[in-house]
Write a structure and sequence with these properties.
Its main location: cytoplasm. InterPro entries: DFDF (IPR025762), FDF_dom (IPR019050), Sm (IPR047575), YjeF_N_dom (IPR004443), YjeF_N_dom_sf (IPR036652). One of its GO terms (biological process) is cellular response to glucose starvation. It holds the Pfam family FDF. There is one protein chain. By secondary structure, the chain is α/β, with parallel strands linked by helices. The protein folds into two domains: 89 residues, Roll (SH3 type barrels), CATH 2.30.30; 312 residues, Rossmann fold. 25% of the residues lie in helices and 19% in strands. Strands 7-15-14-13-12-11-8-9-10 form a nine-stranded mixed sheet, with helices on both faces. Strands 1, 2, 3, 4, 5 and 6 form a six-stranded antiparallel sheet that branches. About 6% of the residues have low confidence.
Length: 470
């Protein structure tokens, strides 16, 4: 306030009293007024000089400046002509404590006056919030147990499931409750021919009789056990299944996801025995494998199917005998069905050769699998197609396979499925040829000579491609 010495001011006190006077002196934050006029009465009488403490002043209004202040202001205005205007007017000028502006503030002494412990004790006493409702960071543990902060593996009833015992063979007149799939053959353009090729060289295809003769010579003349041929198929086909499911990482025991669930369609023939041996190998690396047998009479099962089904269950696979049992088992598991391996028919059999329950179960399985969103792998040819001509069976239903795996040699029926009037178009399927490991000398005999070539290089299966020929 010292800058207003000699100026006439209007003071409004905190008690709403108003005085007008001239500031003569400012001493220890007390303003001395002379020529004081009391504005609180209508008469506005002059009163004696007043001394008013700064703490009682609510508002100060300058009515007229003294000559000295005017001269100082005029000189400052000339010097600061190009500078911005002041942000506050005279009514907002701070006057309190102007005589101690240069004193250094003592932070430490003021901090010492603050009792933190008592303040925090008071806050804690008034804190009624449930600790469980606070942010997770407030309750974060420093050390965790070995089973904490770990994604738990999914657990379902698979380990408690048992293979269903072989039921008493039902009547041959039993019928399935599933309607049969009606599929019309795809329309082909005239003169459309397809052959198998491995790139530059065209590969010959064989008839079912030639393939059967190749295996007969291997077993009868070269004394190769049937179990050895089954194992060769199991090793190579299981490698294709593993590749199709994403590799061995899917079967790693450290993987917190549930292992793949695979269904095997087992006919009472050599293809049925082969897919059971494939299932046994996949069970052994951690896959969940379920096999459904179309023939429920154990006395009618061929030796290889009976033996492989026993080994399959001992390794941990599950056996069921009809679609109802299959759907109940699948519904009890948390993992979805991911893959189907088809061994209903193969190259030496045809569904039209079946009858009774075995036929109706096979046809119902074909329809049910076609309605599922899963990839299907068929051995030799999709079930429902005649192995040589690729004609659809009498029920007009066949498996819509994504993978077709030829065992030993590719069949003529695979070619015929792509020809005019056939049921497949290029790109529908992925084709593989697996090594059966038959003696090389077999291809020196008779009608098998055209197959004498290097089919495989460093692994037991190769991919085949479809090529349109002129």
């Amino acid at each position: 306030m010292s800058q207003f010495l000699g100026s006439t001011v209007l003071l409004v006190l905190k008690n709403n009293k108003r005085f007008q006077g001239k500031i003569d002196a400012v001493d220890n934050k007390v303003a001395s007024l002379s020529s004081v006029v009391d504005l609180n009465t209508e008469t506005r009488q002059s009163i004696p000089d007043q001394k008013i403490p700064g703490r009682d002043i609510a508002k100060l209004e300058v009515l007229s400046l003294c000559d000295k202040v005017l001269k100082n202001n005029e000189s400052k205005k000339n010097k600061n002509k190009k500078k911005s205007k002041a942000k506050k007017d005279d009514n907002d000028i701070a006057w309190n404590g102007d005589d101690k502006l240069n004193e250094e503030f003592d932070f430490q002494s003021n901090l010492d006056k603050f009792d933190k412990e008592s303040v925090f004790r008071e806050l804690s006493a008034k804190d009624n919030i449930d600790p469980n409702l606070r942010l997770a960071g407030h309750n974060k543990k420093v050390n965790y147990d070995h089973n904490e902060m770990v994604v738990k593996k999914e657990v379902d009833t698979w380990d408690n499931q048992q293979s269903i015992p072989t039921p008493i063979a039902p009547s041959r007149s039993s019928t399935s409750t599933f309607p049969h799939l009606q599929r019309q053959p795809s329309i082909r353009q005239p003169g459309f021919g397809i052959q198998l090729t491995d790139g530059a060289n065209l590969l010959p295809s064989c008839s079912p009789v030639q393939l059967l003769e190749m295996e007969r010579i291997t077993v009868d003349e070269y004394k190769v056990p049937i179990e050895m041929l089954l194992e060769n198929v199991a090793i190579n086909v299981s490698s294709i299944v593993i590749k199709s499911l994403g590799g061995y990482a899917r079967f790693d025991q450290t993987n917190h996801n549930l292992p793949p669930l695979i269904l095997f369609l087992v006919g009472n023939n050599r293809s049925g025995a082969r897919v059971l041996s494939v299932g046994r190998r996949l069970v052994n690396i951690g896959a969940r494998c379920v096999a459904i047998l179309t023939n429920t009479n154990s006395d009618e099962l061929i030796d290889s199917v009976k033996r492989q089904s026993t080994i399959f269950t001992k390794f941990g696979g599950r056996l069921v005998y009809d679609i109802n049992q299959l759907t109940v088992l699948l519904d009890s598991l948390q993992s979805p069905l991911e893959f189907v391996v088809d061994g209903l028919q193969g190259y030496d059999n045809h569904l039209d050769d079946l009858f009774g329950v075995e036929l109706t179960t096979s046809n119902s399985l074909i329809e049910w699998v076609n309605q599922q969103y899963v990839n299907v792998l068929s051995l030799d040819i999709p079930s429902g197609l005649e192995p040589s001509s690729a004609h659809i069976n009498s029920e007009n239903a066949f498996l819509q396979s994504k993978f077709i795996v030829s065992v030993g040699l590719p069949l003529n029926g695979v070619l015929n499925a792509y020809k005019e009037g056939g049921v497949l178009t290029p790109g529908d399927c992925i084709h593989y040829l697996v090594d059966l490991s038959v003696p090389r000398a077999i291809f020196k005999k008779g009608s098998l000579r055209k197959f004498d070539r290097d089919w495989f290089e460093d692994k037991g299966f190769i991919e085949l491609f479809i090529k349109q020929t002129i």
